[in-house]
Amino acid sequence: MEELNQNYQPKTLPSIPTFSADMEGKSHEEEGQIVTPWQVTGDKSGKIDYDKLIDKFGCQRVDQSLVDRVARVTGRPAHVFLRRGIFFSHRDFDEVLDLYERGEKFYLYTGRGPSSEALHLGHLVPFMFNKYLQDAFKVPLLIQLTDDEKCMWKNLSVEESKRLARENAKDIIACGFDVSKTFIFSDFDYVGGSFYKNMVKIGKCVTYNKVLGIFGFNGEDHIGKVSFPPVQAAPSFPSSFPHLFSAKDNFRSLIACAIDQDPYFRMTRDVAPRIGCRKPALLESSFFPALQGETGKMSASDPNSAIYVTDSAKDIKNKVNRYAFSGGQDSIENHRKFGANLEVDIPIKYLGFFLDDDAELEHIRTEYGAGRMLTGEVKQRLIEVLTEIVENHRSARAAVTDEMVDAFMAVRPLPNMFS
Ligand code: TYM
Q1: pTM of the full predicted structure?
Q2: Is residue 11 part of a domain?
Q3: Domain residues for 334?
Q4: Nearest-atom index, ligand 1, CA of 235
Q5: What does the pLDDT average to over 69-95?
């Protein structure tokens, strides 16, 4: 999702039908709420109802027993994004754990659509989580840079899209991935051969009506868009990567991303058995919200709506103090009396993503909710947490050289990918 904007009307999709077809189940009439890879619009209140989304998309909820099982199977604490319900939805993740316990292998697949120079903190969420999954399960990770997608949707030139893909690859590498287990590829450079054969097989299984139903294209959209979904589907199948997997390696893929990407993988899972492939499994997160609140807009056109990995300590301080929507009361007296509304408070939501210490988070929630802690104090703690993350990211990114990007993007075997 390029912009998290729950009231966002995309420039490139003039009118999106307010329905979506779940290819694994029934069709659903939708009232209000729309979540596609290009548009996230909340319900009447402006918020995303994630429970409804699970029902509508036909996903499964990540429950406590699944989180406990991950910790048991991997022998390490489950990541905060799992423990705190940020990755709240899945498809067949339990089956991936079953096969992992039987000693079978799987691989991770995720991606980025390179449409801007700088990533915002929401974009980092799936990459941080994939880094944890890669370390915990000791599996390879394949990262698709859909420079072709952004060239079409954002009307960028091929050259500019390719340049942004390499720039974004640096930010991704800065998340700490292991080059001996990670393959990053740009569609413009990699698509062809076995990957293309899979795209064609996938394309043959999806009718025009189905693609309209899932993605909301209409007659005004150019055919480049309509024919794109197989490109994002193909990495779900190991045969798209003959330099990594042999023909008999019918491994499952596990895709961790935000739930906006689900339409691509509903389509992929529907097609998989028809072309002799295994369905990809998914772990899907909610959205890291805009500074202005969960009904606000996090977009590249409004730099004050989000924290970017390029922001200075001063920018972060300013943005949090001036723009982070507070659930605190309008006067100190009222705040002491009624406490903060944690349901709408952005500093608390951001700390829920990025403050690792469970006990400290609980302490802040209790004290702030009871009015003993003030918004300014919570914001101060958030500024410290975000500044540390962004500064660490910036120095890690500064250390990423062009040679390192070439190494991650080279089409090569990964001999230690399962160790
Ligand atoms: P893109 O570039 O829009 O987003 C990159 C990844 O970031 C996730 N994301 C967010 N996660 C949490 N909070 C947010 N506010 C937020 N905004 C974006 C997205 O879900 C995504 O995981 N078409 C894709 C690129 C792609 C891909 C994939 C993504 C290709 N193959 C496989 C996931 C899995 C895109 O444009 O992502």
Answers
A1: 0.93
A2: no
A3: 303-398
A4: 31
A5: 98
